[in-house]
Write a structure and sequence with these properties.
The chain is an alpha+beta fold. The protein contains six helices and five strands.
């Protein structure tokens, strides 16, 4: 039987929880350095499951849900939420159907990016909410980069 630590963090994915927290710490540090409004940042794994989430004091109660919806859409469609927002403008009926199919969890709005390893494999997505879509996306990129991973 595998040691307990390997059950929680499989050998092929060591430290993903630590990476998720590092992404969030980097994102929130970047937001603070830029003087952005209070933010929420989430990190989802490649299957869309929550790895970590934080909401700064002063961020509204909806921020974690909005950040999660952006990240969930990005990882579900293998594209940044900025790309999905543009696609939604071009094909609104399809994206309304996706949102309904996903029971409201799918939010194609700028503010989430894919997280990739050095080989380009998708590890998950980071999403933020609290600023403009551009600010949300910017802090996600900063967090992923600070954690030593690639933003995509």
């Amino acid at each position: 039987m595998a040691p307990f630590s390997q059950v929680l963090e499989p050998p092929q994915n060591p430290g993903r929880f630590k990476q998720a927290n590092a992404i969030i710490a980097g994102a929130l540090a970047h937001a603070a350095g830029k003087g952005y409004k209070p933010m929420a940042v989430v990190v989802l794994d490649a299957a869309g499951h929550l790895k970590s989430a934080q909401r700064q004091d002063g961020a509204s109660m909806f921020r974690v849900d909005v950040a999660t919806g952006k990240a969930w859409a990005a990882v579900g469609m293998d594209a940044s939420s900025r790309t999905l927002a543009q696609r939604a403008k071009d094909n609104p009926n399809f994206f309304v159907t996706l949102a309904a199919t996903a029971q409201g969890r799918f939010l194609p709005q700028t503010g989430a990016i894919l997280i990739r390893d050095a080989a380009g494999a998708i590890l998950g997505a980071a999403g933020a909410s609290g600023g403009t879509g551009d600010e949300d996306e910017e802090i996600c990129i900063a967090g992923v980069t600070a954690a030593g991973l690639q933003a995509g």
